[in-house]
Amino acid sequence: MERIFDFRRFGRYLAYDLRNAKNNMGFTLLVYGVAPIFLFVIYEICSLIFSGYISPVGFTFRTVWLFALVLLCSIMAPSRLYGHVTDKRYGTEFLMIPASTFEKFLSLVIISAVVMPLCLAVLLLVSDSLLGLLFPNYYGSPLLSMETPSFFGIRNNTDMVYVNFILGFVVSWMVNMLVFTLGAIFFKKSKVAKTLLSYFAVSMVCGVLFSAVIIRLSQSVPELFPPDLRFTDVQGLIDALNLFANIWYFFIVLVLLGLIFWRLKTLKH
Predict the structure, then answer these.
(1) Which of 57, 96, 112, 191 has the smallest C-beta neighbourhood within 10 Å, fewest atoms?
(2) Residue among 52, 74, 59, 71 nearest 131 (CA)
(3) What is the DSSP letter of 56?
(4) In angstroms, what CA-CA distances link 158 with 99, 152, 161?
């Protein structure tokens, strides 16, 4: 058992891995985190130049900024953190570190899928809160102070249908981090580009297969899809979609974790 996992050995390796992550990605992560401040300044400067006055930033613009920064970080960060393992020199040093493959795998997952997203989320929320407190008339309210219904739900007539957008976003973020981490330790060159192409190709194949299965089921088992089907209970529909999404994401995460562990297990130089 100690050959696979030892708490003290894992603790030392995790601390070592965290220091490397700080050295490789710390400053870049800080830039991503404070980028909303610079984007807000640039937006207002452009507004002054083209319209002659400072204009408020719409909620849509703020959302686009945050999503773009999160997406860009999830694409670029894994190759900065673990892309060196495919290099002969650094990869050999990585293999020689006195830690088991499982401990290296566990540390990689913790840093790439938990620590990095959490740090970026905290930095983005701090920047968003500062802008909201200092410039409430031009930037708007901070995300943390928004009312729960407007941020977590969508209104359907008089009923409130709750959709956990935040949880879905977090899970998608973690999946993206795992996908690009797998690409970073799998491809030796052009890691981001090759991972993107592979990601799109696999997504297209899965989409085609899923559509084919649905069409096949509708033809062979028509009672599952009656023509007069109506969803009068909107929240019931949302719950069904959430259940399917949970099962799907759980399966995807298991596959990605298995592939990452397999790649680390078979890594040689």
Answers:
(1) 96
(2) 59
(3) P
(4) 58, 16, 10
Q: How far is CA 36 from CA 28, 109, 202, 215, in A?
A: 14, 27, 33, 44
Which pLDDT tens digit goes with each residue over 63-114?
888 889 999 999 999 999 998 898 888 888 888 888 899 999 999 999 998 9
Closest C-alpha to 107, from 49, 181, 157: 181
- Between the alpha carbon of residue 105 and those of residues 87, 119, 170, the distances in Å are 18, 20, 21
pLDDT of 256: 93
DSSP track, 149-218: HHHHEEEETTEEEE--HHHHHHHHHHHHHHHHHHHHHH-SSSHHHHHHHHHHHHHHHHHHHHHHHHHHHH
Two tokens, residue 147: 């009312």
Yes or no: say if 234 and 156 are a contact pair by the CB < 8 Å rule.
yes
In angstroms, the CA 72 to CA 141 distance is 25
